[in-house]
Amino acid sequence: MKKRGEYSKTLLIKRKLQIYLRGQEFVPIKELVTKMNVTRKTIYLLIKELKNDNIPVLKKRSKEVAYKIEDDNATLLPEFSENDVKIINSELLKSKNIPQDLSNKLLKLIIYNFKDTTALSIILINIKKALKAKTQIQIGEYHSREALLKNIYLTPVHLDEKNLKVFCYVKDKKITKAFNLERMFDVYPTEIKAETYPKWVERNHKFDLFGFHDTGKVIDVKLKLTIFATSLLTRQFPIMEKYLTLESKPIHHYILTIQVFDIQPIARFITGLLNEIEVLESQEAKKLIKEYIQKRVLNDYIKKLK
């Protein structure tokens, strides 16, 4: 039997796979293995699970096996309406007859088994409750790119316009950081009072394209990307398309010109595609990216070799 954390991680990968296969041509299994960072065996098992959930996954054989999802409106189980979810969530939270642990288990059952939009709506409802009550939220699990965070308490400050990210005040760093709702599991409002934060946090909701808060420092970044790197970037961040310019000499490539408040996300992207991306500007960006690769990549990897 899978442990709770393992189940959450598998569900997250399964959700990512389902999203990745939507609205595309057939995707080779080799690309899925790389994108999901799992083995071929895991991909086969997840594809089987998606089919068992009545999701129309199509298979094609050419040089290698490839998959795609035919219907973008596929659901994991018979769907509850948003109003159904709101009623269930509201009644569970205010009920005095249902023990808290049982209430939490029932909410988890909804989150883990209903379709993505429904699961996210529950998380969204609970975050909005905390924002209104000015209390902290408890996140049972948060799957960041670097690590799995468990049982963290945060002070929500602001939801983005598309309700895809919640910006929370990080007291020790005195910044507001973005957290993706799709990476969250087991999110509940608490009765813990929100941490006190500076007035500028409420007053200023400026964020860069990666969701990092404006701390008063703007970094100009200009990159030269191959077609392959551009495809990966726009697939992960569709908003980047408007900041790209196609150039055809000496070969076809794209120029990305953006401003960021934190170098980490773009540095992480470059690290995985060193032969596909050239940093053109600025000198500050080059310096920060170099420092990131040295400290966060090379040094960490060298330590693992010892």
Average pLDDT rating? 77
* H/I helix tally: 10
Listing every helix as H and every strand as E from the N terminus to the C terminus, the arrangement reads HEHHEEHHHEEEEEHEHEEHEH
| Strand order within the widest beta sheet | 7-6-5-4-8
Q: Give the number of domains.
A: 3
**Rg measurement, Å:** 21 Å
Through-space gap between termini: 34 Å
What is the β-strand count?
Answer: 12
Query: Percent helix among the residues?
Result: 40-55%
Please provide a written account of the structure.
The protein has 306 residues and is α+β, with helices and mostly antiparallel strands. The chain folds into three domains: 4-69, Orthogonal Bundle (Arc Repressor Mutant, subunit A), CATH 1.10.10; 82-203, no CATH class; 219-305, Alpha-Beta Plaits, CATH 3.30.70. The chain contains ten helices and twelve strands. Residues 1-8, 72-79 and 112-117 have low confidence and may be disordered.
Concise description?
The chain has helices spanning 4-21, 29-36, 40-52, 82-94, 100-113, 116-133, 199-203, 227-236, 264-271, 283-305; strands spanning 27-28, 57-61, 65-69, 135-143, 148-159, 165-170, 175-180, 184-193, 219-225, 244-247, 253-260, 277-281. It has 306 residues and is of the alpha+beta class. Strand 6 (165-170) and strand 7 (175-180) form a beta hairpin.
